[in-house]
From TrEMBL:
Keywords: 4Fe-4S, Iron, Iron-sulfur, Metal-binding, Oxidoreductase, S-adenosyl-L-methionine. The keyword 4Fe-4S applies. Its cofactor is [4Fe-4S] cluster. Belongs to the organic radical-activating enzymes family. It comes from the Bacteria. The keyword S-adenosyl-L-methionine applies. Its EC number is 1.97.1.-. It comes from Dellaglioa carnosa. Activation of anaerobic ribonucleoside-triphosphate reductase under anaerobic conditions by generation of an organic free radical, using S-adenosylmethionine and reduced flavodoxin as cosubstrates to produce 5'-deoxy-adenosine. This is Anaerobic ribonucleoside-triphosphate reductase-activating protein. InterPro entries: Aldolase_TIM, NrdG, Organic_radical-activating, rSAM, rSAM_sf.
């Protein structure tokens, strides 16, 4: 009898503009965690949006791959986040998921309000399963969100490259990117406080 070959699962690879927030997002959030120390530099408020199609084996938040996981995003929650960010000791907002870039309605609403209220005195980090190069070929809403954030942690979680010693990343393919410097120079510039 032939030995059955073990199939190695890998994350999915979308075509440019294949996954559109306008078609996919249900505008749900998996959770909101104010004043945490783990989702980027300093004390941060973290919003976990629901829905992701990358299907990375070993995903840290599998339940949030479902676009209807959690509860609908509301104006009340947005008001609460804006209030929480007013604390001096709170450095900024972090967007995670799920996939923020297929939930751009939620993320842009919040990011625009933060920029209106605090300008750039609060920083905004986002995690994404897209790589920087993939995002450069993406839809206007994704590029708009990118243009309004400070730091992007990019790329799928790749289980064979898992490394728990890395700063703010799960696998060694992922990068912590200074978005504004990268957009202005046209090439990926890493976060200047990167230690490992
Ligand atoms: S991109 Fe992130 S949320 Fe999406 S499947 Fe991969 S690890 Fe999970």
């Amino acid at each position: 009898m032939m030995e059955r070959q073990k199939r190695i699962r890998t994350p999915r690879n979308p075509q440019p503009k294949e996954w559109m927030a306008s078609e996919l997002s249900q505008q749900y959030v998996a959770s909101y965690k104010p004043f945490n120390f783990v989702d980027g530099e300093g004390v941060r408020c973290s919003l976990y949006v629901s829905g992701c199609l990358f299907a990375c084996p070993g995903c840290y938040n599998k339940a949030a791959q479902n676009f209807r996981y959690g509860t609908p995003y509301t104006r009340e929650l947005e008001d609460q986040i804006i209030t929480d960010l007013s604390e001096d000791y709170c450095q900024g907002l972090t967007l995670l998921g799920g996939e923020p870039f297929v939930n751009t309605q939620v993320c842009l609403s919040l990011v625009d309000r933060i920029r209106d209220t605090y300008a750039w005195t609060k920083d905004i980090w986002s995690w994404t399963g897209y790589t920087w190069d993939e995002l450069m070929l993406e839809s206007d809403d994704k590029l708009e969100l990118l243009s309004k954030i400070d730091i992007l942690v990019d790329g799928r979680f790749e289980l064979p490259k898992k490394d728990l010693t890395l700063q703010f990343r799960g696998s060694s393919n992922q990068r912590i990117i200074d978005v504004q410097k990268s957009l202005s120079t046209g090439e990926v510039v890493l976060w200047d406080k990167l230690l490992k």
